[in-house]
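Q: Give me the 3D complex with guanosine-5'-triphosphate.
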Amino acid sequence: MSAPANDSQDYVGFDTITQQMERKFLKRGFNFNVILVGESGMGKSTLVNSIFSSHLVDSQGRRTAQEVIRKTTEISPVTQTLEENGVRVRLTIIDTPGFGDQCNNEGCWVPVIKYIKDQHAAYLERELKPQRDRVINDTRVHACLYFLNPGSRGLRPLDVEVLKRLTEVTNVIPVIAKSDSMTVEERTVFKRRIKEELVFHRIAVYPYPSEEDGEEDRLLNSSIRDLVPFAVVGSEEIIDVNGTPVRGRRHGWGVINIFDETHSDFVHLRNFMLRTHLSDLIEVTSQRHYEQFRTSQLRQIKELRAQQAAAAASGGIMASMPQQAPPQVPAIHQSMA
Ligand SMILES: Nc1nc2c(ncn2[C@@H]2O[C@H](COP(=O)(O)OP(=O)(O)OP(=O)(O)O)[C@@H](O)[C@H]2O)c(=O)[nH]1
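A: Here is the predicted complex, encoded as C-alpha cells.
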C-alpha cells in the first residue's frame, strides 16, 4: 500500500518523527569520549589531532632526557566542543601519560581501568538519583585507541594483559602506531600476527558481531575487521607538494600523505570512527559495557541489602547476644580495576 501524500487529509504525520528527533538532537548536541592508551612517543596526540583536524591534545612526553620518567600512569582528560554543519559534539580526549613507560609495568593499567569504571559509576549514580537530571552528562568512555608499538614483533605480554582488561570495559580499537616506520611487507606480517594473537588470547576488539546486523552492516563490519589493527600515520603538518597542500610527514625519500590509502589506514580509521560507527560506539557503550557494569553493581547492592535485612532480623531474635557491626552498602563508585 502506498503512503498518502503529505497534503492529503489522510496524512497523519508520524513519519516526521525523524525530523523532530533530529531537531532535538541538534539542539542538545552529544558527548563523545575517547581514551588513548599506549607508551610515550607512540604518536597518540598527533593521531587524535589528525583525526579531528584540530589541535586538541598537547604532547605530554619528556622534552629533555633530564626530565624524570613518570612513575605512574596519569589520567588527563581534555574537553572541547566542535561543530560541523550545525551538529555540536562535546569531545573529551583522555590521555594517559606514563602508561607502559617503566621497566616494570605491573599494574600500569589500573588507573586506566579505574577511570573507565568510575565514569560508569558516576552515570549510574546520576541515573539512580530520586530527582534525576533530564539529560545525564555522559562521561562514559566510548572508544579506546590502543597503540601497538611497531617495533615489537606481535602482542607483548603487557599488551595481552591490558587488552584483556580493557576489552571487558570499553570498545577497543587497536592501531599500529607510526606505521611509516615499517615496510609494506612488515606491516602485512605484523597485522596478520596481531589478528592471530587476538583470536588466540580471545580478545574481542570493536566492532563486535551482532545478530541484529543486516547484510549491509555485516559486510561493512567484515571489511573493517580485515583492516584491524589499523596501520596509522599521523601528522599535524601541512606540506606543499608541487603546489598542493598535503597533510603529511616529510621523509628523506619524499612525503607521506596521511590521507593516501596506499600509505596508511588513517582514512579508513577516521571514516570508521566518525562517519560510519560514531553512533554505534556510543550505543554499544551504553548497551554492552555500561549495562554489564550496572547489572553487576545492582546485584551487589541487592545482596548486601539482603544480608543487612537478615542481620537486622536475626538481631531481634538474638538481642541478648553481643552486637556485630551491620554490613555496609559500599558506595557504588568504589570500582576495582
Ligand atoms: N614517523 C612518525 N612519527 C610520528 C607519527 N606520529 C607522531 N610522530 C612523531 O612522534 C613524536 C611523538 O608524537 P606524540 O604525538 O607527541 O606522541 P604521544 O604518544 O602523544 O607522546 P606522549 O605525549 O609522550 O605520550 C613527535 O615527534 C611526532 O611528530 C607517525 O605516524 N609517524
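A quick observation: The helical segments are 17-28, 44-51, 110-128, 157-169, 184-200, 215-227, 266-276, 278-317.
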